[in-house]
């Protein structure tokens, strides 16, 4: 078993950053690949960092067997200290010296999937953040950048493809049926961007010529049977290369760019220089096996990893506290990429709404819970715990606000300056903000850069309160904005944030009032500010925080009438959607807070407004689907001081059933209007039509559950059987499962039989069942059964997530049981997974982050379950950090 429990728990602090005592200039790695025992020869040239006081060389290492160490070709003395290899008799002076280290490791025993591991007979590496030290002893920190030459040697029959970063210099046969390949990376890089792959893979290849006339080879490597699922990833990669050149002037800097898919991966994908390694989930797709959502995710993740080539690889992080330097910026870039690929402006808005929904349902709770941390954290125990929605999604919002403040061209100028200054360096979030500000000296950002940078240093979601007053006599509208941010762990008092508030005013008929540009973007930089609008003829309806211009909670006591006006007329599609969400939320909260059994929470005005959206003749289908989707249970719960998850679940289900029933005829109309049978294309417009048709089918089946009607479930089953693509097929299956119809019991095994050899489709099959609405406590037993299914594999992260996370993290109505059995199940799984994969276990451990908000008996039961995990003597640092913070 792996040595999870090494060393004491130490806290790493940002303020303790010190430059490295040595530089590593070149690395020559030679691998003799063998699943049981791989030999690694690491030959480095190093020199002292003249800028810091002389000190011993301390190299990181983990789970390595050390065979030999040579300095300048001769044996030398060394010692081991806290897992590090320490050399203190190194040559005097600042001359370079060579250090050779021979180690072995056991890739087939590597269940953590960090470092060098084997997945389905193929070797892969994962080095970010600190996995390289599981391959060889090294200065495993991002500010040490070296030139790599890598020689791979392996059995030719089993491992015909040998890949590493950069360019293939040489390859050829070796004795005993072995062969070798030698790769040279022309770019210096930190160790976390190192990668190798060795196995029996095939590649889709495409040659492209970039704007500058340079030729590049693009390759997507997969297992032999998966070749027919690589076209979309390749098209996405081609689009990514073109986009980064066109939008930011950033070209591909390699002759060859490779993507390799693996089915065993802890995260989504990894941006290793020139050799991106992906979870199969974000590569493989064809219309028979992947849904529209999968297609869209692949496009965005392929883009994301490709864009890292500049924002992450060419300019990297000085230390891991700066993670958002590359992640926030790269998420922003992939979001913009997906939006720019949309032909219609309405599709851009849909993407924005989806991104904000993720932020508000996942990041806002994180920012209000025990794991709250600034976009640039100040300390961590385990860096893997800080690959969070805060660093990624809130970090992207921070970059987006900069663009809002300096304008699109100004932002492009800032990016240009950032690369002029920092190409080839390892830098900080401050360096980035400084470059954007310096390129735009007359902007609000430059004028108040220090205030703006509080977005990096302060955790928590600010709340912005807005109050409007209309003076009819003076024909004047006065808007007062004020801000407040609650304390977060370790930060009791917050300074004001710099908050760009994009806004507009509508008249009572919903017509946009003309405003000067300066009034359409108000920058709140103090505790409060007042804006005066003159020449306003009647009391306006304010449309605030348009496009979600800042990651804040807006508190404005708008009337239903105002929200209905915005829902019907706002020219800002985001706020139009938001008006519908606020109307629904208001009703949900009232029903949750009311006494007695849950009645019908929706009124005629709301239902009519939803009907008007559904039947609207110009809004597009994707927007309608988003607007008709009620706020999630998680989002509703976040608005409450004390949460009874069963009550929240019951209320939301009641609302959904009411919409299903009241709009029956409209859903039937929507289904017939939007179900098309033409050739499948995953573009946003047709995906939106499928999404709306799928939603309609679910609503019709839900209603049939109450009315006893058999027609719609029958239609859904028929659709399930003859759908021409996975989206329609899965939506039909889901309609049956979600409505709990008896036909689901026939459809599910049929679906399994159809796709028994498609791992990613089976993941969906598992997830659908583990995430289904709970009816009388039936889901937990179903989850246990799924775990006993022959296709269930706990050690495969995708499969484990598809059952366990779908239940614990994504199905609150089933997970929060009055008998606490959900929590006991959770603690058992956290402990079980922690024994072989701490990273995945620590993510699961986050499922009870918000336990303090729960009503009794949930609250005590949840605390007990967390305490049970925390009481384990043998716990990884990853899980220990999460549960300790949860209990504090
Ligand atoms: N850097 C990867 C990304 O955002 C995420 C990742 C982190 C993958 C750590 C693996 C391990 O694109
Ligand atoms: Zn990333």
From TrEMBL:
It catalyses: Release of an N-terminal amino acid, Xaa-|-Yaa- from a peptide, amide or arylamide. Xaa is preferably Ala, but may be most amino acids including Pro (slow action). When a terminal hydrophobic residue is followed by a prolyl residue, the two may be released as an intact Xaa-Pro dipeptide. GO terms for biological process: proteolysis. Keywords: Aminopeptidase, Hydrolase, Metal-binding, Metalloprotease, Protease, Zinc. GO terms for molecular function: alanyl aminopeptidase activity; metallopeptidase activity; zinc ion binding. Residues 233-441 form the Peptidase M1 membrane alanine aminopeptidase domain. Its EC number is 3.4.11.2. Its cofactor is Zn(2+). Residues 460-556 form the Peptidase M1 alanyl aminopeptidase Ig-like fold domain. Transmembrane segments: none annotated. Residues 560-887 form the Peptidase M1 alanyl aminopeptidase C-terminal domain. Residues 29-193 form the Aminopeptidase N-like N-terminal domain. It is an enzyme of class 3 (hydrolase). The keyword Amino-acid biosynthesis does not apply. Belongs to the peptidase M1 family. This is Aminopeptidase N.
């Amino acid at each position: 078993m792996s040595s999870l429990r090494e060393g004491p728990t130490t806290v790493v602090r940002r303020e303790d950053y010190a430059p490295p005592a040595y530089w590593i200039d070149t690395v020559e790695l030679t691998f003799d690949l063998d699943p049981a025992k791989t030999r690694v020869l690491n030959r480095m040239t190093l020199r002292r960092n003249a800028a810091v006081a002389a000190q011993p060389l301390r190299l990181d290492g983990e789970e390595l067997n050390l065979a030999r160490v040579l300095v300048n070709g001769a044996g030398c003395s060394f010692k081991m200290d806290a897992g590090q290899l320490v050399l203190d008799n190194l040559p005097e002076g600042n001359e370079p010296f060579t250090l050779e280290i021979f180690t072995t490791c056991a890739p087939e025993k590597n269940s953590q999937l960090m470092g060098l591991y084997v997945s389905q007979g193929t070797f892969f590496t994962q080095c970010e953040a600190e996995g390289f030290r599981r391959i060889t002893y090294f200065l495993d920190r991002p500010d040490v950048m070296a030139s790599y030459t890598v020689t791979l040697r392996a059995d030719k029959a089993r491992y015909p493809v040998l890949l590493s970063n950069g360019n293939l210099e040489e390859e050829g046969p070796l004795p005993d049926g072995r062969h070798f390949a030698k790769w040279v990376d022309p770019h210096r890089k930190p160790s976390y961007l190192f990668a190798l792959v060795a196995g029996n893979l095939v590649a889709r290849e495409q040659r492209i010529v970039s704007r500058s006339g340079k030729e590049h080879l693009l390759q997507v490597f997969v297992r032999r049977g998966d070749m027919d699922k690589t076209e979309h990833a390749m098209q996405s990669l081609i689009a990514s290369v073109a986009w980064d050149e066109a939008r930011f002037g950033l070209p591909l800097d390699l002759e060859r760019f490779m993507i390799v898919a693996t089915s065993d991966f802890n995260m989504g994908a990894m941006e290793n220089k020139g050799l991106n390694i992906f979870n199969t989930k974000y590569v493989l797709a064809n219309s028979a096996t992947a849904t529209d959502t999968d297609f869209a995710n692949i496009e965005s993740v392929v883009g994301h990893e490709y864009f890292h080539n500049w924002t992450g690889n060419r300019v990297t992080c000085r230390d891991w506290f700066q993670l958002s330097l590359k992640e926030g910026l790269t998420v922003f870039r992939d979001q913009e990429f997906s939006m720019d690929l949309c032909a219609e402006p309405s599709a851009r808005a849909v993407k924005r709404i989806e991104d904000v929904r993720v932020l508000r349902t996942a990041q806002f709770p994180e920012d209000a819970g025990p794991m709250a941390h600034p976009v640039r954290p100040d300390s961590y125990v385990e860096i893997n715990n800080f690959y969070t929605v805060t660093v990624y999604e809130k970090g992207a919002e921070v970059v987006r606000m900069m663009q809002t403040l300096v304008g699109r061209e100004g932002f492009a100028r800032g990016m240009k300056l950032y690369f002029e200054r920092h190409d080839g360096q390892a830098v900080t979030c401050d360096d980035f903000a400084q470059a954007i500000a310096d390129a735009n000296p007359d902007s609000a950002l430059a004028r108040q850069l220090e205030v703006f940078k509080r977005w990096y240093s302060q955790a928590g979601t600010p709340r912005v309160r807005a109050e409007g007053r209309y003076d009819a006599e003076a024909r004047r509208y006065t808007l007062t904005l004020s801000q407040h941010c609650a304390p977060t762990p370790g930060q009791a008092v917050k300074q004001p944030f710099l908050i760009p508030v994009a806004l507009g005013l509508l008249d009572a008929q919903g017509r946009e009032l003309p405003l000067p540009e300066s009034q359409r973007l108000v920058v709140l930089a103090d505790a409060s500010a007042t804006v005066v609008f003159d020449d306003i003829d009647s009391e306006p309806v304010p449309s605030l925080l348009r496009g979600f211009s800042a990651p804040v909670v807006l508190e404005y006591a708008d009337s239903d009438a105002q929200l209905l006006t915005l829902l019907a007329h706002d020219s800002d599609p985001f706020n139009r959607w938001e008006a519908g969400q606020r109307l629904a939320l208001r009703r949900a909260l009232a029903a949750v807070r009311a006494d007695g059994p849950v009645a019908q929470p929706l009124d005629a005005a709301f239902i009519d407004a939803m009907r008007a959206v559904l039947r609207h003749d110009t809004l597009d289908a994707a927007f309608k689907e988003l607007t008709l989707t009620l706020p999630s249970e998680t989002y509703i719960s976040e608005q409450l001081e004390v949460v009874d998850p069963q009550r929240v679940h019951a209320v939301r289900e009641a609302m959904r059933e009411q919409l299903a029933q009241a709009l029956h005829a409209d859903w039937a109309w929507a289904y017939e209007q939007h179900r098309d049978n033409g050739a499948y294309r995953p573009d946003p417009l047709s995906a939106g039509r499928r999404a709306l048709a799928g939603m309609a089918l679910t609503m019709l089946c839900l209603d049939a559950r109450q009315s006893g009607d058999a027609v719609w479930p029958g239609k859904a089953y028929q659709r399930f059987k003859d759908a021409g693509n996975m989206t329609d097929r899965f939506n039909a299956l889901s309609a049956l499962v979600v409505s709990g119809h008896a036909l689901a019991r026939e459809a599910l095994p049929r679906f399994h039989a159809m796709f028994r050899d498609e791992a990613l489709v089976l993941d969906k099959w598992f997830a659908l069942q583990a995430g289904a609405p709970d009816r009388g406590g039936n889901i937990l037993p179903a989850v246990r059964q799924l775990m006993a299914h022959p296709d269930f594999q706990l050690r495969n992260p995708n499969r484990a997530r598809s059952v366990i996370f779908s239940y614990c993290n994504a199905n609150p109505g089933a997970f929060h049981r009055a008998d606490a059995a959900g929590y006991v199940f959770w603690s058992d799984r956290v402990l079980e997974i922690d024994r072989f994969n701490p990273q995945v276990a620590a993510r699961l451990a986050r499922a009870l982050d918000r336990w303090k908000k729960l009503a009794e008996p949930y609250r005590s039961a949840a605390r007990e379950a967390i305490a049970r995990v925390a009481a384990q003597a043998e716990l990884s640092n990853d899980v220990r950090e999460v549960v300790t913070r949860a209990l504090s």
